[in-house]
Design brief:
This protein is α+β, with helices and mostly antiparallel strands. 38% of the residues lie in helices and 33% in strands. The longest helix is centred in the first third of the chain and has 22 residues.
Length: 128
């Protein structure tokens, strides 16, 4: 994975976290899977937001991909929360003049997650 891609992911996370911490917070979509996973993990919405704010380039899985339902791009991440691997899908949504940090998915992964930057480090790649 090249440095340009890594920089792009870092820029997305930086912008997402800036929006999320500028008083607007993170809009966590209340899907059944998301709510059930939070309950199973014993997490509150605040805990969930803290997990999202702790994401790094090394948690990146895929994206950006076009959102099939609305304008914009979707980025996919994953991380261990407790003993469970969690799938996290994020988006910066444009609503009028306002940009919103949205979490579309935060649930136990239902498929194998691939972490290109972690994999590169394990194979002797550079951790920059």
């Amino acid at each position: 994975m090249d440095e340009i891609k890594k920089e792009s992911i870092g820029n997305f996370l930086k912008e997402f976290k800036k929006i999320a911490t500028d008083g607007r917070g993170i809009d966590i979509v209340s899907r059944r899977k998301n709510i059930e996973s939070l309950t199973d993990l014993g997490l509150t919405f605040r805990n969930c937001k803290n997990e999202i704010l702790g994401l790094s380039v090394f948690d990146y899985c895929d994206g950006p991909k076009p959102d099939k339902n609305r304008p914009g791009e979707i980025w996919e991440f994953g991380k261990m929360v407790g003993a469970k691997k969690i799938y996290i899908k994020l988006k910066i949504a444009q609503v009028g003049e306002e940009r919103l940090a949205k979490c579309l998915s935060f649930h136990v992964a239902e498929f194998q997650l691939h972490f290109p930057f972690r994999d590169a480090v394990k194979k002797g790649g550079n951790e920059k």
